[in-house]
Amino acid sequence: MKTVILLTVSNVFMTFAWYGHLKYKSSPLWIAVVVSWGIAFVEYCFQVPANRIGHYQYTAAQLKTIQEVITLVIFAIFSIVYLKEGMKWNYLVGFAMIILAVFFIFKKW
């Protein structure tokens, strides 16, 4: 559970680092880059421990899968709430296919 919490916090910061500047398109690009780097540093302070701790329980592929699912959930919420963009049916279908990938990656064969 600690890994999932750390990955979730990490992804909130990552999403703001990567996409938060889209609301401020009038700001100079170099400012967006510098601010994003600062936010990304905080993101790494959660991501690295999450992967280090998580690798005792999960494989690297499983960790990456967990991270991607968390990223999609955080991004979906972010794009709707912060960027005011809608959720389309094809996005949901794509997300569902990724969830199907989770099944295959975590299934013991």
Tags for this entry?
mainly alpha, 4 helices, 109 residues
Order of helices and strands: HHHH
Number of domains: 1
What would you call the shape? flat
Helix coverage percent of residues? Answer: over 70%
Find the structural class using helix and strand composition: mainly alpha
Indicate the proportion of strand residues. Answer: under 5%
The major sheet is characterized as: none
| Number of E strands | 0
Overall pLDDT level: 93
N/C terminus separation: 24 Å
Radius of gyration: 15 Å
What's the tally of helices?
A: 4
In short:
With 109 residues, the chain is mostly helical. Helices cover 77% and strands 0% of the residues.
Give a verbal description of the structure.
77% of the residues lie in helices and 0% in strands. It starts with a helix and ends with a helix. By secondary structure, it is mainly alpha-helical. The chain has one domain. The protein has helices at residues 2-19, 29-54, 60-81, 89-106. The mean pLDDT is 93. It contains four helices and no strands.
Can you lay out the helices and strands and say which pair or pack?
Layout: H1 2-19, H2 29-54, H3 60-81, H4 89-106
Helix pairs in contact: 1-2, 1-3, 3-4
